[in-house]
Design a protein that fits this description.
By secondary structure, the chain is of the alpha/beta class. 28% of the residues lie in helices and 23% in strands. The protein has a seven-stranded mixed sheet, sandwiched between helices. A two-stranded antiparallel ribbon has the order 6-7. Strands 9-10 form a two-stranded antiparallel sheet. This is Putative SAM-dependent methyltransferase.
Length: 271
């Protein structure tokens, strides 16, 4: 393992701290629209998680807190956790702006240190949103953290980009990458994924996790898989042939061969 990979946590934290200044003013995140009442949750998430009124929800890797606060707007008592102090500052400000400080709090911590950071608290729901798992090297450790923070009978809900989307090239036609490439990958990208100026901290370290690894980690942590759903929609135009639907999601055109673009998992901690 290279020195860059051994320093993955510091590099990724610096990278995400730097992204916050860009994301906070980007059209992609549209914080003014969120302050005006918008929600960043996908319709399938609302259906699959169900009613959260009065429930305690922990959002791991919450970034600037829009998904977290969207759950708060639906009645949950929420805790958002992120390793970026800049992101947590932005989330706290956003909570103040929309009058949610009585129902939402934000904590600075690496995922693996979450139980200590939250003093052993347990929750009805642990939620992890899109694009989170690639930043974690050890999924069994992650799943054990999740399990330890759930109440008996509580549920973890995960929505993620499907690992198959990482196999194709930018044209969406050419198979370019290995599905079983699980070793650390170091990237040097001058821009984040939103509109805006260049980054100053450009290095990051990521891991690709096959779907079987995710399911197995949850099962080995003692959680019962309730469902695994694969979805044919994406949040952005990942490939040139994807077409935008009326609800803002992107799909392959009618008659085009499809691969799953996102997936969701719900797992229960036995009482």
């Amino acid at each position: 393992m290279t020195n860059t990979e051994t320093d993955w946590l510091q590099l990724n934290r610096e990278n995400w701290d730097d992204r916050v200044r860009i994301h906070a003013v980007s059209n992609f995140y549209d914080l003014p629209g969120f302050r005006a009442g918008g929600s960043t949750l996908r319709s399938f998430e609302l259906d699959e998680v169900g009613d959260v009124s009065g429930k305690r929800l922990l959002h791991l890797q919450c970034h600037m807190g829009q998904d977290t606060l969207s759950w708060a707007r639906r009645g949950a008592e929420v805790t958002g956790l992120d390793f970026s102090r800049a992101a947590v500052r932005a989330a706290r400000t956003l909570a103040e702006d929309i009058g949610m400080t009585d129902r939402a709090r934000f904590v600075v911590s690496d995922v693996y240190e979450a139980p200590a950071a939250l003093d052993g608290e347990r929750f009805d729901i642990v939620y992890t949103g899109l694009g989170a798992l690639v930043w974690l090297p050890d999924l069994l450790r992650w799943a054990n953290v999740v399990s330890s923070m759930l109440k008996d009978g509580g549920a973890v809900y995960l929505a993620e980009f499907h690992p198959l989307t990482e196999l194709l090239g930018e044209d969406g036609k050419t198979l370019e990458h290995d599905y079983f490439r699980t070793q650390a990958q170091t990237y040097d990208f001058p821009h984040t994924y939103t509109d805006g100026p260049p980054l100053t901290k450009t290095l990051s370290v990521q891991w690709q996790h096959p779907l079987g690894e995710v399911v197995t980690a949850l099962a080995q942590a003692g959680l019962r898989i309730e469902f695994l759903h694969e979805h044919d929609a994406m949040l952005f135009q990942r490939y040139p042939m994807l077409e935008r639907s009326r609800n803002g999601e992107y799909r392959f055109p009618a008659g085009h061969p499809r691969i799953p673009l996102m997936y969701s998992i719900r797992a229960i901690k036995s009482a």
